[in-house]
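Morning!

As promised:
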Amino acid sequence: MTAPVTDDALARSLLATCHGMGPARLAWLLSGAPAPEAFEALCRGRIAGEPGPAPPGVTPALVERWATDARRLDPPAVAEALARLDVTVLTPDSAAWPFAHDPDPPAVLFARGHLGLLAPAPRAAVVGTRRCSAVGRQAAYQLGRGLAQGGAVVVSGLAAGIDGAAHAGALGATDGNSAPTIAVVGTGLDRVYPAVNRRLWAEVGERGLLISESPLGTGPEPWRFPARNRLIAGLCAVTVVVESHVRGGALLTANEAADRGTAVMAVPGAIISSASAGSNQLLADGCPPVCSAADVLHQLGLHPSLAIAGVGGVPPMATQGDDLGPLARLIVDEASAGPIHVDQLVALTGQAVPELMAELQRLRSHGLIRLDGSTILFG
Amino acid sequence: MFATVASAVVEGVDGHPVSVEVHVSQGLPGYTMVGLPDASCRESRDRVRAAILSSGLVWPQKRVTINLAPSGLRKHGASLDLPIALGILAASEQIEAERLEPVGAVGELGLDGSLRPVKGLVCLAGAIERPRIVVPESGGAEAAITRSEGVEVAASLRQLVDALRGDGPPLSPVRPPDRCEPDERGGDLADVRGQPLARWAVEVAAAGGHHLLLVGPPGSGKTMLATRLVGLLPDLARADALAATRVHSAAGVTLPACGLVRRPPLRAPHHAASLVALVGGGTANLRPGEISCAHGGVLFLDELGEFSAVALDALRQPLEEGVVRVTRAARAATLPARFLLVAAMNPCPCGEGGTSGRCRCTEQVRARYTRRLSGPLLDRFDIRLEVAPPAPHMLLDGPAEEPSAVVAARVHRVRALAAERGVAANALIPPGRLDELAPLRPEARAVLRAALAAGQLTGRGLARVRTVARTLADLNGVGEIDEGSVSAALSLRAVPASVLGVPR
């Protein structure tokens, strides 16, 4: 036996590593004794203190399993791994703890990145399905971008589809006073999931904040994702569902938000798109619609400036473009209304293709448009 | 008795002289062939025997030994049937050996004694070191491409033997046709309506020889554009035409009526094509692949995302060097492979990605679809074009567009300018000569500097953009490259996000 663990945060991380240790079970263990004592007791196969009636599923066999897991753990190695990966362990005693008033708080949080983002601030969850449409992805991206530029912290789950696009949009915000983004993930912070978001994961960890309830080494276990959704809802004053199928994790997040009494909003989608069936149902149930980032910013009590382009875009010409020629002005105007192909611009402007292509590069270098192949995107 | 007949075999696109030596001696009747014949070459024994008998000639009931010299070179195919038959007839004293002395021969024999065409006559004809050669009747024009004199054709073994013995009329020499009918140029660019960007991009690609990537949903006209592009290219220069003809002949591709491949070829291998079918090779003999067959013309890879990653990455070296070096354990061949690569792909497997919101592909599926397209290969495409389906009213009521002939005239002018610079096309300007051949005005330089600083360009990308800008400036009749040309070249290079497997 090594030296006893005295650090509360480390003991909590060790306990969380035991098999099937969800937030309810961990809370039950800790209701009997402080974390270091609970861990020491578990190593000896006992439950410390008098924790009250056990939550469902906690059998003597499971406690035995926990004891085995606890004995196998090497506390200094775990502490070293946390330090090496630059992961901070947060507990309800931590200054940055954001779940003080949450009805269903986690017992421990693992975080990497800018902890300052957990301080009270206007935060909006932008969530949705992994199987999203291209339009939904774009809406999530533009919402993420618009919210970040409007000074709101975008919170999402870093899943494939809508979640990832929302984070990417927030990170893509170019404005000076833009706020970075928080990703609440279901796996351990050393286990990137899904793999398609590897780059995004690294960037959020660098410029924003990655948090997880799961200890290092935890892979994608299905039960952890719904649990993760309650944290997303708990962090935010507004939850926006961009696209959701009839049954979807995003609707769980919306329910969690409703339980906490925070606002739920939804992006209207086409009635023939199954990816919007769930989000449209939310609208039918009375949730306010989101037609631009400004709608969400208003809900958060922020006052979007004219420069912010949300879904549907606020014409940007009020703030910039006095130095643009008529052709450039026309291009930016058209692009701000939605993605437009060069062929369409040719038809609209009657301009020759070579001149138009040269003008596009000029606008691109000014950061007014982006090119996705031959499609012009605003901003 | 002993006789020798000159012939040749093809390896890659090169003909190698082969001397067929036949020895007929007393002894138990038998037949031995040495000198590394492959299976089809070894089977010549039965064809030759039947053909000799069918022609009313005599098969010697003696010991027949055949040596195909040089003995270290592997011989394949049936093209040595005819020289073997002639050798046996001479060695058994049915033809006078001295009459065979100045004659080389190549051809496959039918059991009835008829002569059948063989692959690679263009390469073979030049390799036979005799003043006269005899080839099958249908191959005369092909053989005459590399040999303007001394090519004779025969329809059957009997006709040839009679001519050699003086019993029949002498064989008539073949001359290359003086005039060729104009070749088919494929569809006209005037058919492409309502897609001004695509029309222009195809013109730029043809003018400068820039590799072109087309991304668009099914039915947006990608294949149509690729076939129109070939029609814009000028006729092949003599050297390229000869090289292309040799490759086509060796690969067994049907040659045009006049023999010489003068129009740039279009090759469009299916995406299930194997690595060997694409780049060339093979175990029995080294055969040119599709990329060599596209030499001087266009290699069109439709459904780029469905090609195997190995096959695609094998294109990188030929794209860089203009030749492909195929090496097998015992043999190696360098085959010409300078082509304009046109690749087309859907934005995602369901084809709807990007444009319409109807796409149902998950990100994993998208990522898998585009993963095969490696960064280095993507970097080779100077023009990345997103093809949008034309507006319906443009198809029916749109204004008439410029026909291919008008666009081709501009393309030819730019190609002529490139030729004055000593390159076949602007895309082939070596990076070291860019400052000399594609000088930049200060404001154009500033645009490139800004693009580099913004991370829009890599080092290789910079050189490629300068060649495209050279082409654009040439199209505008500008000497020193202006800002507009560089800016437009940069816009042409913008990668569609769907190709990278990332959301917009």
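Chain B touches chain A through 55 residues (CB under 8 Å).

Hope this helps with the figure draft.
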